[in-house]
Amino acid sequence: MNLVSCLPITPTNYRDGMLRLGLTGGIGSGKSTVETVLEQSGVRVIDADQIARDVVEPGKPAWTALVDAFGTAILQPGGALDREYLAAISFPYPANLRRLNSITHGLIGAAILEWIEGIGSQSFAVALPLFRPEHRTIFGLNEVWALEVEPEVAVERLITFRSFSENDARARIAAQMTNEARAKIVDRVITNNGTLDELQQKVKELVGGRRLGG
Question: Which of 25, 131, 133, 184 could be 29's S-S partner, Cβ–Cβ 3.0 to 4.6 Å?
Fold first, then answer.
């Protein structure tokens, strides 16, 4: 059985024929692989994770707010944010995670909108680990895909390929939306418990035949 499977797509109306895609999925689900295939296919990818790193660079408003909220212990010696330490004190603790999100999410959203406005008449994909239904309207999306992976597979990938400890991996997974909840708010679910080649081929098939440029 092919381990990369899809649920039937919900009918959508494509504005001017272009794909305006939302891409979501939990940690370890394979979003970066899908982003690479999309870019190779001519879809501009806006990565919310990268934008999240940009908005907390030293001296920027989010950096200042985070230091005010969590103290200088979250900084590396040169002043850059210690993202691993901030994650360790945030993801296992709901109150800290809410504080972190309240500081960063608005700025990340504004930066994504700036990217979209600059793309013009071209298909794009916004990679949103924390996708919410209102993002369809905010970012003008006409289709949303979710990458889905079994939690134990995600734990193994995080330990093997990203040097997470098992406790850290499980804490990150426990803090995010479940696969079941995510599936209810997207148009297509791509199950990725299999190989890299299987995932790449499935995404190529999904993109094939779409009008991607102006």
Answer: 25
| 3-14 exposure pattern, b = at least 16 Cβ within 10 A, e = fewer | ebeeeeeeeeee
Round to whole Å and give the CA distance between 37 and 199: 10
Instruction: Please determine, looking at this structure, whether the domain spanning 1-7+17-43+123-208 carries the CATH number 3.40.50.300.
Output: yes
Each residue's pLDDT expressed in tens, for the chain with a length of 214 residues: 233 333 333 333 344 568 899 999 999 999 999 999 999 999 999 999 999 999 999 999 999 999 999 999 999 999 999 998 999 999 889 999 999 999 999 999 999 999 999 988 789 999 998 899 999 999 999 999 999 999 999 999 999 999 999 998 998 899 899 999 999 999 999 999 999 999 999 999 988 866 565 5
Per DSSP, which regions of the chain are E strands? 20-25, 44-47, 124-127, 143-148, 188-191
Length of the chain (residues): 214
For the entire predicted model, the pTM comes to: 0.79
Domain boundary assignment for the chain? 1-7+17-43+123-208, 56-120
Pairing of strands 20-25, 143-148: parallel
Whether the CB-CB separation of 126 and 168 falls below 8 Å is answered with no
Look up residue 142 and give its DSSP letter.
Answer: S
